[in-house]
Structure of Tetratricopeptide repeat protein:
Amino acid sequence: MTATPFRLPVSRSRVLAASLLLAAATALSACQTSPTSNLGSIDAAQGSTQNIASLSSVISRNPQDPEAYNVRGSAYGRGGRYREALKDFDQAISLKPDYYQAYSNRALIYRFTNDQQNALADYNKAIQINPNYDAAYIGRGNLYRQAGRTQEAFNDFQKAIQLDTTDARAYHNRGLLYQRQGQHALALEDFSTAISLSPDAPEPYNGRGLSYLATNDEDNAFTDFNMAIKLNDKLAESWANQALIYERRGDKARAAKSYARAVQLDPNYGPAKEGLSRTRGV
């Protein structure tokens, strides 16, 4: 797939004009600023106590095995035990200084602990060791995107895709950038590819639904938002997006119900609070 060069700047106001579509723009903006599949680039080890105990037994038998520390660090990361995760990744790198996967995993933990400088340094190191490591480009791209360094983020997602990544996040995140610039045809293509690579992830359905909505394809947007809820009914964004369709259709009762569910899940989610205020007339 040949990607159109990323263009800066493009005004979002030319994409969504009507009042309800402005509400969609608010939801779209909120979607773009939240990380997606944050732990997706950490190894698949689960953070259960039982699993960590098993991994610790492996380490006790093989204390010089860097891979064992990397896997346990991943499990700690899954379980939110970031301090222990960092210690294990440190040990893995100490035992194997060219362990680019451990650098990339440690970078993600640094992101979660708001140490963006060390996160960037670790992603850079991973890429320096292995310039073909797609996960590091995706992780660094997310770091750039959240810092507002849009062009650098796009370049990293593009690089991962050029490396034939099978990681859905590269396409999803590039789709978010296309979407933000009003390039919805390209965004739809990227979100669809992300869905094909990770059909159980709700985020690409929300992203694609918003681009469908921006192009006035309300039926497909509604289908995607409903699928996002089916896959994970704990995401405020999905309920707020569904509510927006109900609101556009004039069904304020259902809209208010869905907005209320979104607020219940995330009381600080702006699009849901604003939508609930509109549909309840508060």
Q: What stands out?
A: The two ends are 48 Å apart (CA to CA). The first helix runs from residue 19 to 33.
